[in-house]
Amino acid sequence: KEMLDYSVDKLTAEMEIPYQFDWLIGVNLLKEDIGATVQDLALEKFSDVSEMVANSLGYQYEIAEDWYQDYLSSEADVYQTLSALRVQRLSDEELFYYQRMQYLRYIPHLKQEVIANRSIINVTDTVIKPMAGGFLKLESPYGSSFMAVLPIAKTPIIFNGFHLGEFVQRFNFPVELRIKAEFMDKNSLKGRMGRSNTRYGNIMQEAESTDTVQQDDIILGSMSLKDLMKKVGGKEEVIEYGAFLIVTGSSLSQLRRRRQVVLGYFEDMHVEVSEASHDTPYLFQSLLFGAPLENKTRTWPHYVTPRGFAELMFFTNTSSGNRIGWHIGRVDNWTGRWESIEKAQESSKNMVLFNATVGNKEGIAGKQTKNPHFLITGATGEGKSFLAELIFILTSIQDVKTLYVDPKRSIRKHFEAIVNSPDFEKKFPLLAKHIQNFNFVTLDSKVESNHGALDPIVMLDKDDAVSVSKNMLNYLIFSNKHITTTMDQMTAIKEAIDTVVDQRQRGEIVGLKNVLDILLDSKEKDIQSVGKYLNSVVKNSILELAFSYGDVEGLSYDKRVTVLEVADLSLPDNKGNNQEVTVSDKEINSTTLMFALGAFCTRFGELNRFEDTVEFFDEAWVLMNSAEGRAVIQSMRRVGRYYNNVLGLITQSVHDAEGDDDTTGFGTLFAFREDHELPDILEHVGLDVNEENLEWLGNMISGQCLYKDVYGNLNMISVYNIFEGIDPLLKPMKSTVSSNLENKYAS
């Protein structure tokens, strides 16, 4: 709760009002007249006239309780037509809230308070005061704000690339876009086109007769008009629309600055935006939901075909991430290259929220994948470990069991040094206590206390203990081409494993080393020789991590947060399936250990189907370079599709996660920069490999990545940690005299 409250306070202090962009579509519905008689139609017309007369005299016409029945068929037709846009019907609460929001623009409030009483009279419970300069002041019980309406007066004649719906989302403050549109009547349209064509002809004839230069605007305007006339003659529809930008602020000075930024932005694009200083009160009324395209909004008309209307890129979204989650960064809408990650973060207020546990949940509107797993790739130093550890720490605060596999052995030492310092404990006592409760496990065979931590007989149930133990010992034997085994020897190994596992089930303190002792104590020399070989291989090797007499705690499934460090793993690279490659003893031992590690990870994810579990594999290339390592990953991915388990891989190359027999990929992708793989990264996230995209990707700086979420949104984001206490945990590199001087004298 403290972290969530801090998030709200931090983001509110920076942004005043955190916001997101939603697209709303309103369509006028026609009353259903199917089956009506002439008498019914006459009665309905009379009722409409009576209502108009009553309203003009100040009376209110009583509305029937089942009035909506006449519009259900029309609404169903509209919903079906718009289904290609993945639209969602608004609930009663949402409809009231969006209506009320028109009178609460940029006024801090709680949604629950606003919708507590959804009486119609409460929709307009705001005092609207016109101000000098064409501004409006909104005064409500929740506070006050100021707003201005800026109509788009003139757009480029060459309409290609005028993505208005995207442009308004690029500002670092909220800019609302309102569109009023309707299909035009063909008869009136032909008259307008004829008059405009005559006017263009007269202007061009006058320029020719006076021997003056024809202006480009006139030439292009005439060409576009003739093209429109041709399309109308071909029965193509034409849309008349008005586009209006609504800018808000908490003070007049802030509003003036923001309005000037908007005007300057569109001026640079050669788009004429009217300040409409004297029309703001009327535009406020005319732009309310449900108001048609009327005289006031027709003051700045635009005429386009449906294809041209689509060029405005409505319903596009520059947001990324989950609707509810932890703040991990900001969307970067600029295609250029930032000087620093700090400037990229400051330029955007488009928040990125992430919740690792919703990937495979059902019933989430708009979600395009049920694949819960996420992949973080990128070159060393680009920020992938920073992001992974940020997500890990934030996820650990939730009611989720988490496991972080850290082959670099960097987290434990750094985390413990930070949280155990007196200054940190004093400043962030709750966070320090939380990190101190982590179950840190270091799998280092050089440390005797770690021996047996991965003993399968200690940490697995009966069936898995037998299976994994057998696989480990068999792999050690069969990997040595100089050893020939007999059926009696293999049978003895199996019987020894069964005996020790049964003893463990009865409560005796035994482990995998007891299996070796049984073989060594055998009266048959052949069986003794197998025991001697296995014992010699295990002694003073990484395999001691998986062999014990059962007197160790082993890796626990009960710990809510575990950081698992693996030292000295050396796995063979056999992606090419080259059978002639000689595998070293160290690689054989590391591969054998993977059976135990994989079993633990699989069991961790499937122990409780109704419990959320998240596993992070840092430096995943260590696993993916071998068939056994890839088998661990594939096993975990399969667990996640049925259980509430999420697997996060952190690795250098986008190719590291390419499995031999699993093509389902990952539901969520984070791709940091890797200069040698720019085309591969574009293909990885589903973008075309072209010059424009390569240049855009090449402008990405350290701390930025491409993010593809479970909704299919793809954007470049700047990773940004807002928690002061977490920041030192993510930055292990301390400043030095040299680095401080470098920054001091930077030009």
Secondary-structure map:
Elements: H1 2-15, H2 38-56, H3 72-82, H4 92-101, H5 111-114, E1 127-131, E2 135-140, E3 143-154, H6 164-167, E4 175-183, H7 186-209, H8 216-233, E5 239-249, H9 252-268, E6 272-273, H10 280-286, E7 302-304, H11 306-310, E8 320-321, E9 326-331, H12 341-346, E10 351-354, E11 374-377, H13 384-397, E12 401-406, H14 411-419, H15 422-427, H16 429-436, E13 439-443, H17 456-459, H18 462-478, H19 487-505, H20 512-520, H21 525-538, E14 561-566, H22 585-606, E15 613-617, H23 621-624, H24 627-642, E16 645-651, E17 668-672, H25 678-685, H26 691-698, E18 704-708, E19 714-719, H27 727-730, H28 737-744
Parallel strand pairs: 8-10, 11-16, 11-17, 12-14, 12-15, 13-14, 15-16
Antiparallel strand pairs: 1-2, 2-3, 3-5, 3-6, 4-5, 5-7, 9-10, 9-19, 17-18, 18-19
Helix pairs in contact: 7-8, 14-16, 18-19, 18-22, 19-20, 20-21, 22-24
How would you sum up this structure, described in words?
The chain is α/β, with parallel strands linked by helices. The chain has a domain at 1-311. 41% of the residues lie in helices and 15% in strands. It is built from 28 helices and 19 strands. The chain has a twelve-stranded mixed sheet with strand order 8-10-9-19-18-17-11-16-15-12-14-13. Strands 1, 2, 3, 4, 5, 6 and 7 form a seven-stranded antiparallel sheet that branches. β2 (135-140) and β3 form a beta hairpin. α7 (186-209) packs antiparallel against α8 and α18 (462-478) runs antiparallel to α19. The longest helix is centred in the first third of the chain and has 24 residues, at 186-209. Mean pLDDT is 85; it is low at 735-739.
